[in-house]
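User: Is it possible to get a 3D structure for a protein together with its bound compound? The compound here is NAP. I've pasted both below.
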Amino acid sequence: MVISREWHLLARPRGWPKPEDFALVERDVPDPGDGEILVRNHYMSVDPYMRGRMNAQRTYAAPYEIGKAMYGEAVGEVVASRSDRIAQGAFVRTMAGWREAAVCRADTAEVIDPELAPLPAHLGVLGMPGWTAYVGLYDIGQPEPGETVFVSAASGAVGSIVGQLAKTHGCRVVGSVGSAAKVRYITEELGFDAGCDYHDVDLTEWLGEAAPDGVDIYFENVGGDHLQAALNAMNSFGRIVACGMISGYNEPRPGPSNLHSIVAKRLRVQGFIVRDHADRKPAFLEHVGGMLRAGKIRHTETVVDGIDNAVQALLQLLEGGHHTGKMVVSL
Ligand SMILES: NC(=O)c1ccc[n+]([C@@H]2O[C@H](COP(=O)([O-])OP(=O)(O)OC[C@H]3O[C@@H](n4cnc5c(N)ncnc54)[C@H](OP(=O)(O)O)[C@@H]3O)[C@@H](O)[C@H]2O)c1
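Assistant: Yes, that's possible. Here is the predicted structure of the complex:
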């Protein structure tokens, strides 16, 4: 019998989640049954969508249940297997995050290659955020070489990959981030053409300088003032890739006052959820995995140590200013 700690949701947060909304609970993990594997998690992901699952309303996914363990992406080692599909010793990605160990159906686990990249990268550039960047930019944004792409939350898990993919596609890429150090990161290390700390600028004025020919694609991760400024800067027939609007996940934000430009500029604004695009996962893994093997894409993971700190890590992710690239928790 394996003992595992797991995070339960105790109460649905109103506004910003508080530590007392959660409890770390110890439980016995049973032996795997037929077709199942026992996984010892090495890293779990914290992601913005997890905040939405704490609310009672069903959106595109069911809410977390009160008094039960939360879940999300995790990578770990198979320590026992009763599946002929996945052997003991393999490394897998599952949805059994927020806990140290779990029994999973083997047909819900994805075998990953730890030689291709360190385990945390399989939650970032090679995981759901990288897949989101790929689908959002290519399928929803449909960039053309020479176009200008504006990315918000540009140093984060999704934004950092969007910017690099757009650069390899021949686009001009500009991004907004929350500190001067992150501006240096996206411009000097990731190759963005320009970056700003959104705390220090008027975003509309800054876009006028950083994107003198206007913005053709806005990759929207933030909402609020960022969407307002992007609408001001968009070219006619531009595309807004509505990936997320993190600034409003904990407290309501006023909507932009310039939505009429969608009509005047004949913009296409399209939301998407990456899980609807499972058919694109093989192409994503081939494309981004190939770039990784060729050393043509950079990735950073911010690792928070220990399951005890997992809730704090999620709160820091939502707040911003605490991480670069993909935030994960080592277990
Ligand atoms: N549609 C989908 O299928 C899908 C899938 C994955 C993610 N997403 C969305 O993609 C976005 C990015 O997710 P991620 O996993 O890559 O997270 P991330 O960018 O690694 O982390 C979130 C970042 O958002 C920024 N932020 C938070 N509050 C902000 C505010 N009020 N104003 C400006 N920036 C703020 C912070 O960056 P700074 O430190 O620079 O301020 C923070 O680090 C989120 O909106 C998420 O919901 C959507």
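The longest helix spans residues 128-141. The first strand starts at residue 2 and ends at 9.
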